[in-house]
């Protein structure tokens, strides 16, 4: 199981970015995928997740209405579309896979639920 996160960069407040998480070694639709972020000096926090079926998603209150998680099974890739970015969204963003036996509708924002992690991509939002 490997995950490759990309798409980060420097953007002005109010701007948009789309992060990608390319999966290899397994097929999307097998595991739930989550996006997390970690700002300097802070704990890694759950941002969004999508269930193995793709039918259930979760977004943290801090990003609800601004971020959208989606998956493209043909490309074996999960996306995090981010709009109306704020300086407080600045962080390294990670995608992760929950490979444990879960209901098809399940995903969570709990770091402890995830076993495999991508390398992270930096998102910097300037004010």
First-to-last CA distance: 37 Å
> C-alpha Rg, in Å?
13 Å
Tell me the number of helical segments per DSSP (H or I, 4 or more residues long): 0
Report mean pLDDT, rounded to a whole number. Answer: 96
Give the tally of β-strands. 11
Compressed to H and E, one letter per element, the order equals EEEEEEEEEEE
Strand content: over 45%
The helix-and-strand class reads: mainly beta
User: Largest sheet, if any?
Assistant: 7 strands, mixed
Apparent shape: globular
Percent of residues in helical segments? under 10%
Uncertain runs are: none
How would you describe this structure to a colleague?
The chain contains no helices and eleven strands. The radius of gyration is 13 Å and the shape is globular. Helices cover 0% and strands 48% of the residues. By secondary structure, the protein is an all-beta fold. A hairpin with a 6-residue loop joins β4 and β5 (45-50). The chain starts with a strand and ends with a strand. 35% of the residues are buried. Strands 2, 4, 5, 6, 9, 10 and 11 form a seven-stranded mixed β-sheet that branches. The protein has a four-stranded antiparallel β-sheet with strand order 1-3-8-7, with no helix packed on it.
């Amino acid at each position: 199981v490997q995950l490759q996160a990309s798409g980060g960069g420097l953007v002005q407040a109010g701007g948009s970015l789309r992060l990608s998480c390319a999966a290899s070694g397994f097929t999307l639709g097998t595991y739930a995928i989550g996006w997390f972020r970690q700002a300097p000096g802070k704990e890694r926090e759950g941002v969004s997740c999508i269930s193995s079926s793709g039918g259930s998603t979760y977004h943290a209150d801090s990003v609800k209405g601004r971020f959208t998680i989606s998956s493209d099974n043909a490309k074996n890739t999960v996306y995090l579309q981010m709009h109306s970015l704020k300086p407080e969204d600045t962080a390294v963003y990670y995608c992760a896979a929950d490979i444990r036996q879960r209901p098809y509708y399940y995903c969570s924002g709990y770091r402890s639920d995830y076993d495999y992690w991508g390398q992270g991509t930096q998102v910097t939002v300037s004010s």
